[in-house]
Amino acid sequence: MYEETKFKFDWKGFLLKFAIIILVVILVIKLMSIKNKNRSESFTSNITKLKDVSINYFQNKNLPENENDTKTITLNDLIVSGKISKLQDSKGKDCDEENSYAEATKSGNEYEIEIYLKCGNEEETIYAYKTQCEETKCDEITTTTTKKTTTKKANNNTNNNTNNQKPATTKKQEYITKVVTKERKYYVVFDTDKASSIPTQTLKQGEKATKPQEPKKDGFTFIGWYYNNKEYDFNTPVTSNIILTAKWKQN
Question: Fewer CB within a 10 Å sphere, N or C end of the chain?
């Protein structure tokens, strides 16, 4: 009387959908790892600390006075002076305290602060700009770092005419501060060992240093440029600040 209907499970469709779900999950995980690949959480925290300390350090007398002048302080100097604690990478190793630094350069009414941090295999440069500004302009921008302070002159005269006196105003130097990220630059310094000087080369990451003219030194013959006790190959891409030392042979 009743026909028995058999339910057939679609295994092929099920497996296909399951495979698609797995692929989507794997893709999402990979995308998340790529997104976070450039910076670890500890490095992000470290460079933020160094940035904040550097901006606070370069105030008033610590800022360069003349056009294009620079002032530099290393991470080690900041630690020794008690302005920042030691920074460590995710493995608990200290960040590079000698080569990590903050450097302020004066350009017009603006100061460029270059903040460089290297921790293990991670490194990055952040640039902060501090601009001197007029009081009214600073008031319009929420990134102003200092505010005007106003004090009244002491006056024992209770006469109503004292209301016409204007309060004395003292101003602190005001700045607008902005932080941006730029392409990292490196310096190649040539140590000629008291011979004729050679200008420092400034390069972007991955660029190659240009071999300079051979320096001259009385009583010596120039052998070549050496780095870490090995003759330097100028076809090597520059990925850090380096000092090349001239090697000499006495005549």
Answer: N
pLDDT digits (tens, 9 = 90+) for 176-214: 666 655 667 788 999 999 898 899 999 887 899 999 999
Which CATH number does 185-250 carry? 2.60.40.4270
DSSP 237: B
Q: Where in the chain is the domain with CATH 2.60.40.4270?
A: 185-250
CA distance linking residue 182 with residue 202, whole number of Å: 14
Could you give the count of Cα atoms lying within 13 Å of 83 in the half-sphere of its Cβ?
18
Cα distances from 42 to residues 50, 80, 89, 92, 247, in angstroms, run 12, 22, 6, 10, 41
Concatenating the DSSP letter of every residue in 45-96 gives HHHHHHHHHHHHHSSGGGS--STT-EEEEEHHHHHHTTSS---B-TTSPBP-
Do you know the residue count of the chain? 251
| Paired strand residues for 222 | 248
Cα–Cα nearest to 101, from 168, 214, 185: 185
Q: For 92, left (φ over 0), alpha (ψ -120 to 50), or beta? A: left
Beta strands 242-250 and 185-191 are parallel
Q: What is the pTM of this model?
A: 0.49
Cβ distance 149 to 104 under 8 Å? no
